[in-house]
User: Fold this.
Amino acid sequence: MRRLLAQIRHRWRAVTNDEAMNVELDDELADHLRRQTAAYIAQGVAPGEAARRARLAFGSVQRYREEARDARGLRWLDDLRADGRFAMRMLRKSPLFTGSVVSTLALGIGLSTAVFAVIDATLLRPLPGVHAPDELVQLFRNTDGSSSLPHVRDVRDGATDVFTDVAAWTFTQVGVTVANRTDKLFAVMVYGDYFTVLGVQPALGRMFSREETLRSSATPVVVLSHGTWRTLFGGDPGVVGRTVVVNGRQVTIIGVAPQEFTGVLQMVRPAMYLPIVQLEPPAVVDDRGRGFVNLIARLRQGVSLEQADARMRVLTTALQPVNPRAYVALDAIRVLPQSEAGIPPSMRSAQLGLSAVVLVVAGLLLLVACVNVANLFLARAGVRAREMAIRLSLGASRSSLLRQLMVESLVFAGIAGVAGLFVSSTAIYAVNRIEIPVDFEVSPDIALSPTVLLFALGATALTAVLFGLAPALQATRPSLAPTLKGEHPGNGSRTRLTRLLVIAQMALSIMLLMCAGLFAVNLRSATTINKGFVSESLLTAEVSPSLAGYSGARAGDFYRRLMDRLRALPGVRSASMVDELPLGLNNSSTSVAVPGSVVPASDNVTMAFAVAGPGYFATMGTSVLQGREFTRLATRTEARELIINQAFADRFWPGKDAVGQTVRSGDGTFTVIGIVPTGKYETLGESPRPFMWFALSETADFSMVLVIRTTGDPDAFISTLRNEVAAIDSNIPVSSVRSMERHLGVALLPARLTGTALGVFGLLGLLLASVGMYGVVAYTVSQRTREIGIRMAIGATGQQVVRMIMREGVTLVVTGAVLGVAGALAASRLLAGLLYGDTVDPIAFGLVPFVLVSVATAAMFLPARRAATIDPTLTLRAD
Amino acid sequence: MTDQAAIRQGTLDMLILKALSLQPMHGWGIAERIQQLSRDVLTVPQGSLYPALHRLEARGLIVAEWRPSEDNRRAKYYSLQPAGRGALKEEQADWRRFMQAVQLILES
Assistant:
């Protein structure tokens, strides 16, 4: 033990206090020489002669110093340090080279790190804020995944031997009233000991008791999320015991969940937690047919996933005869570890797939960057071949040269890695700022976590090996005699590969950039496309009277009163409502049958629809081509009215008058009372499709989206709108209040995101292609120095040399460009669904290849010009 | 100098440990002591002495410390560690076994 300590101390000193040890060694050797000299003098030798003999007997002090350092195990450190210094010198010597290598690698490393950060945040991190997340499992019914509450009780009671407990949860939307304003918030409804199963301790107050989650009580309770506690209650430490109005009922706050806790899905941050029994009637709690919850359970200590799975199979078999209707179709209950079940199984595989694709794209980009840099290094190795050959012939070992070149690669990669972290943190910042237009708070919390940093480090090291090793091996090949003689060994295969790479890069960059250009152009034309309505000065907002306890006729009455108030306001030209706005994320469809339709195939087709209030089309700025629109909240007979678009009419009654025709849907028959022009309903890029609108009835109690046409800026009207709703009932939540223009931003989001991503990757591709061009041409020039020298010696002008070199490069570039344009044409067809209008845009298809070819040509010009300055006498004399 | 023999590789470490087992010494002193004890038969190649000392120090068998020497100058003194004492014992045993074996062969 003491010996080990001594060894460590010695090593530590050797590494950290190297200079002092050198001085000490010198002192020691001097002391030795002095003593030896003194000994000779004592034997009668003259002082001068004694000193000479002592030194002679000792030999080279320098060599001993090195040997002593070897003995201290430090030689490698010295070598590395020298190599590092040399690498830094090379780095400073050619800033252009350094700049292109570092920026190429930094982008490659940075972007793949950013992609990995997204994957880390969404798939890899353990669930925050819970106890022992690896013991948690989710239980899925094999049929549809969600379970009924009686099923939860069956599983809980039947599997106490494998699970400590089983709880259920599901998302819901609630109307929460604070200070006379009601918001629609996203909440988690729980059943059973949800917090105990997850092992969550309250930040304040207490969590639900078992009794509170299993049986409804007269005193409803709520646990707030940490975020809600901060935003709605200002982080008031005395919040426990206060009440808050949820869905129109006074609910007592009993606790606050810890800050990091997000429930079972880590990306979604619910606002509060409520017992299911408090919100749902006993009929739902006891309904076996009503599957709407997700199950979470904690494995007993020492119970494996397989054991739990086996237990579930036994349980299913046992339950089948007892409850045939609920269990007959169920052959198993699937047990999934929580870490894999954050997302339902069906979606998870899709997400994994998508993540994999993106990571592969980013990885390929990094690989291309590596290949590129390797090309650059190769080009430079050509220039340095003589230096290497001379050093080899002077007896430097190949391994020492290899090591030196690898240290150089590492230094480059290291700098690029640091720069890459800036790239990735910028990218992460941008991704985190993307507003996902959904009604609940989503925070993927993408960050440079330790795992991500480790990934970046690994990527950097791997990069160094990838781009450094091949050129290093090539540069230090032992058969360097021809190089020494000024000849270049034939390596045509390598050159061919390089050229293929350049063509591929060029083609890929053109494809990416052209697609990005298409998106940019389309985004612009999207604002002018005929959507079937006028989006300017239109305000939209969702009202949910049902969340304030309204039902049936009471809700209808609310809508009528609200409409009357809104229309009476100054600045409002017209107002109406619809259940779903066009071009949103949700779409409803229902099956219809058209009696006597000329469309034979199947009488029964699915048709997209919306439910509209009176005056909807007038408010939306949609003209009615034939017939009329809805005039008031539909009474029982008027509820049989239907308005269709032109595409609908054309499909079922081509060339006939559609008004007055009937359509069967569900258990009713509806009469067409009006026809409107065909617009856009799901995406801006969709082709004309049939659509229909049912009349909003007097007894509709679901949420509706208000549409209000204002005379001025619709945003200025937001607070008035809230006040009007609150004036009727402040418990009714108003949500998603925004102008139609902003709502359309949602529809444009996929195009915008894809366009941005393609643009970034395309620009990166452009950079890579130019750097690649530069590298290849520079390499070719260095290889042909002698040939060029001879050409110039026999009278070729510099201009002719430049032309000769450029001709070769331009061939590569143009080949790549042609392939790229062809690829882009093919890709644009695949992207047609995301594009609006033309897919072949003259600007995108003309400008991009032009720019790329120009940039690549410019990148070639530098080495070509250098070739023209070759001094023929020098190259020839070099032989 | 035909009566002098170079020290074989590997034996030097053992001889240094043996010299230091008597008392702490500086480098030159160790070389002198070995030559003296071998009645001038063995000379320590001075170039190998210091690397050997540093190697032994790195292995934790000896420690070094600067202190005033007999002529009132500073010198680096090496002294044996308990681990060094153990190592010396082992190497001596190994050496004796080796010598006996060689002797058996030579006398056969």
